[in-house]
Amino acid sequence: MSKIVESIAFLQQQKWIDLTHEVSAEIPYFQSFKPLSEDTLCTLEADGFYAKQYHIVTQYGTHLDAPIHFAAGKKTLDELELHQFMLPLVVIHKEEAVAKNADYCLTVKDIEAFEKEHGPIPAGSFVAFASDWSKRWSDHTAYYNLDESGQAHTPGWSMEALKFLNEERQVTAIGHETLDTDTAIDCTKNGGLLGELYWLSQNKFQVEVMTNLSQVPAVGSAIVLGVPKIKGAPGFTIRAFAVVPKE
Prior knowledge:
Largest sheet: 9 strands, mixed
Helix content: 10-25%
CATH superfamily: Putative cyclase
CATH class: Alpha Beta
InterPro entries: KFase/CYL (IPR007325), KFase_sf (IPR037175)
Shape: globular
Strand order of the largest sheet: 1-13-11-5-7-9-10-4-12
Strand content: 15-25%
GO molecular function: arylformamidase activity
Pfam families: Cyclase (PF04199)
Protein name: Metal-dependent hydrolase
Number of strands: 13
Number of domains: 1
Number of helices: 8
CATH architecture: 3-Layer(bba) Sandwich
Organism: Enterococcus florum
């Protein structure tokens, strides 16, 4: 038996955790976009087979942002390398901090504290920010979290943390539970998503609107991404899951 087949048998015995939200017309989405819509093209009764057509924006539900989403001349979805769709998964758990402060910004100090406990973040890994924001998913008001003035309050990454992960740790990708990379407050203050712009400009990708990260240990797991190969796409809805060591 080959080592690959043996590895598959081993992985199938571990715990598999879905990191993906179900896609429908009712889910939260970025307000510049439109919700999912669908048409039934063929039915079993009339045509002998069932087929539907979906109208969906590239950044909808749990999705992957390709570098070109923000950065001209960088990689499109179909240009990402296959081996990047299965990576060591590192999860920085800040659920308690976000529960106390919806504007929480993950910093280099948070990463240093994480590494003091778990060791250096390996190069080539996928680093996820676990905030428990996904638990607000079924309540649009709570998920968008707008105040009386219309300002959103959502957590995110600091620019310094993103630069540290890129320049000092050479990680391959990042992920989070919110719609955006930056905190909503930073986006307003800076007049745009500067953290997201920086990350994608490095020709690196990210996964947004993740779920169930609270169930994944800080280290020792793998993430697998099911990514369609759509020519020239700036991103698309994906299936993401973690393979976690069975206790």
